[in-house]
Amino acid sequence: MAFIGQSTRRLEDLRFLTGRGVFVDDVNDEGQAWGHVIRSPHAHATIDRIDTAAALAMPGVLSVYTYADIADLGVLPCATAVATVAPMIVPPRPALANARVRFVGDPVAFVVAETAVAARDAAEQVVVDYTTLPCVVDATDSLDESFRFQRGDAAAVQAAIARATHVVDIEVVNNRLIIAPLETRAAIGRWHDGVFDLFVSAASVHAIRDQLARDIFRCPREAVRVSAPDVGGGFGIKNCLYPEWVLLLWAARRLGRPVKWVEDRAEDFVSAAQGRDNVSRGRLALDADGRFLALDVNTVAGLGAYMSGGGPGSSTNAPAAAMGGGYVIPAIFMDVRANFTNTAPIDAYRGAGKPEANYLIERLIDKAAAQCGFDPIDLRRRNLIASFPYQKALGTVVDCGRFAANIDDVLVLADHADFATRRAASENRGLLRGVGVACFLETARGAPNEGAEIRFGDDGVVTILVGTQSNGQGHETAYPQIAADLLGLPIDRFRYIQADTAEIAEGNGHGGARSMHMGGAALFNAAQQVIDKGKPVAARLLQAQSVIFRDGRYYAGDLSVDLLTVAQDTSLDTYVWNMLDLITFPNGCHVAEVEIDPETGQVTLDRYTAVDDYGTLINPLLTIGQVQGGVAQGIGQALTEHVVYDPDSGQLLSGSFMDYQIPRAMDLPDLDITLIGVPTKANPLGVKGSGQAGAIAAPQTIISAILNALAPLGVTHIDMPATPERVWRAIQQAGARP
Fold first, then answer.
1. Is 607 helix (H, G, I), strand (E, B) or coil?
2. 269 phi and psi angles, rounded to 5 deg
3. pTM higher than 0.90 for the full model?
4. Hey, what domains does the chain have and what are their CATH numbers?
5. Are 309 and 347 in contact (CB under 8 A)?
6. Cα(678)–Cα(617) distance, rounded to whole angstroms?
7. For residue 733, what is the enclosing H or E element?
8. Residue 52 and residue 456: Cα distance in Å, rounded?
9. What pLDDT digit, counting tens, does each position of 412-451 carry?
10. Measuring CA to CA, which of 25, 215, 402, 641 is 20 to 30 A from 588?
11. How many CB atoms lie within 10 A of CB 215?
């Protein structure tokens, strides 16, 4: 039976739905203490004095640590390499603030007590004297630059603009976002037999291990173990090293007992890494026929108060790979200034730079169509890549796709031909109706190279170990599907292990929609090596000169022996570190229809349709779920989500779900996703990756629909999120009255 391509329901769901999932909060060690972080209430201030005496005298308190206690530790590293114009400025970030705090939520002290309640009560008795300093919360107002990044041919772009028939420009905001995974950050720090052991709700456990060993504790890698149980969402921000992980391990070694910390939602809002936060100005040059000639991009990117592990990549390397989307644009130039602000650090969040790049080009195309008299759909068709391979102006090579066909197919599925009828019906009810059609191009890979291992047990169970990691994507189902298909064994024969540096030799973890592309390719190669290892053994057992492998058995004429029997005779255990640095290019076209109440500005997303290409589908059901989840997050960015800091005090004004609205079920229509894949040759499975695509595609599609609805009223621009207030104000400022 073929398992690849089957919509198998997730094997792990039985565990989750029956309450047998294991998250960090479910685990308590014998003799465990609890930690609580004392955080800065100020966005920028000097620390003048910390008095811990009253807290230390409280019942159950084991210790209160400040920077002076951990001064000999290394600082949190920035793990992302960026080829900047001048050396990147990376301010030291100790796990506890040294003399100065730089954002509301900056860790200042760490209380450890016998219980969580005792630790929290003691934290309230710690006295910290501050002298407040001026703060900056908007990157465009900041003069504190970390780096300048440039890529492309500036001269070619300027020459193309000079000779162009049309030049359109636009300034767009990618609003800062709180990620809000279902499970907040949590960990247990342990110290035993000279080894640090971090049990953590995180992804990329090998990278976290390496940073802890190399940069923080300056010890051999073998002296640090990092493992994760079930993880309730991360979307990129759980990939990086956090101060709390350092504090837990350090305290566990100092006290000789495990120390646990579970973040509450208020802490998550102020201290976990956040996403996006940049402003880009783009210019698009076109000839008289609407052919794109050049794209010029200037970006100011917010970094927050510190350089987080993956932060700088989100405004540099990542958008550069996708800049210009799936269009033929002969010349592109990017100029990025990345500035520090007194806000929570920015890190990679679902798509990490690709949403920003796609949003910019799609908004430019809509403006070019309106300003220069082109049909927006035809303008896209005219400029989409049609011949493969195609090398984009900034170097990436797109190997395959069906870009124009995506548009044709989605318009049929969205019943675009009958849009005018639906618009008239909305108008009869006093509502405005708009349609948005937008494309996207993802660049999926994340970190290059990945490992996979296959082990055969005496009990007939085959264990799969892969260096990528699930945060809810369904790897416990998808990887066994691949192995079952390749090795010809029932899917229930397989056991999947992930996220443990003591079990898995190496791994590049989660991020960049890389798991099936990188991890799947490594597993494919490991399975092929298993089969090849077994051939001489099977030939000996069958007393044959050669054998062929098919459906889990080795055949020599009419005689055969099954794979598991061969594995019992001779070890077929196999480990592969697969060297693979190619990028894949998921792509698609999405259509959204909205209704707007002009009296209130309320936007209702009424219809959403997509046709996407993710290459070979390991499990279409899981793929659609991944895309729908990403679309929901993109809808949130477009319509409701917005981090707001007070410009004077730096206080987070959107500090809870009372003030920060993520999409609810009632905000979402049916998300109609159709998958039509063109397999890539970038990996042996032909997969392209789907984890980020929805968040890359949805924002421009929805904003396009809103502007289409508002165009008759004279509204030509609106920034995300298109909240009712913003839409209403845009209508008033355009001079239109409902």
1. strand
2. -65, -40
3. yes
4. 24-134+182-233+238-271 (3.90.1170.50), 278-445+583-733 (3.30.365.10), 446-578 (3.30.365.10)
5. yes
6. 10
7. helix 724-733
8. 55
9. 999 999 999 999 999 999 999 999 999 999 999 999 999 9
10. 641
11. 17
